[in-house]
Design goal:
The protein has three helices and eleven strands; from the N terminus they run E-E-E-E-E-H-E-E-E-E-H-E-E-H. The chain is mainly beta. The protein has a single domain, classed as OB fold (Dihydrolipoamide Acetyltransferase, E2P) (Beta Barrel).
């Protein structure tokens, strides 16, 4: 049985995860600079200790309403295309998952879910959706 560690976070009522090795850090309270004429999923740019980082709003990406946020967090990622940040609602932490919990996304899953997830881990009391970072990056381009 193979285990993975995922960085888990909430967007709306849904738990999402990305592989821990893709995460550089998690930060809060950043000042954003808007980018005119950018994709609607881009919230703006943040300056992270001199490094300019693009912020992707996961609520916009997933077409969720934006009016329910309480304590948003920036999950800063290292990706082949550079450093970017996912703007999410709340951190859950690091979770261990096994291959036995893994399932491909159901064909009846909605189009948005099919677009951005690679699969689902069935946890004891909920589902964890594994994000496909390449697809999130393409949506932000």
């Amino acid at each position: 049985m193979s285990e993975k560690q995922l960085c888990a976070f909430w967007v709306g009522d849904y738990l999402f995860g990305i592989e821990v090795n893709a995460v550089q850090e998690v930060v809060r309270g950043q000042i954003e600079t808007r980018v005119p004429l950018s994709s609607h999923v881009i919230r703006g740019l943040i300056n992270l200790r001199g490094q300019v980082v693009t912020v992707v709003d996961m609520r916009r990406c997933l077409r969720f309403s934006e009016d329910e946020r309480q304590q948003s967090v920036y999950v800063v990622l290292l990706h082949d295309s550079g450093t970017l940040s996912l703007y999410v609602d709340k951190m859950m932490g690091v979770l261990k998952v096994s291959d036995e919990q893994w399932e491909k996304p159901a064909e009846q899953a909605n189009q948005v879910a099919q677009t951005f997830i690679r699969g689902v881990y069935k946890l004891s009391n909920q589902l964890l959706f594994l994000l496909d970072l390449d697809k999130v990056v393409r949506a932000a381009s």
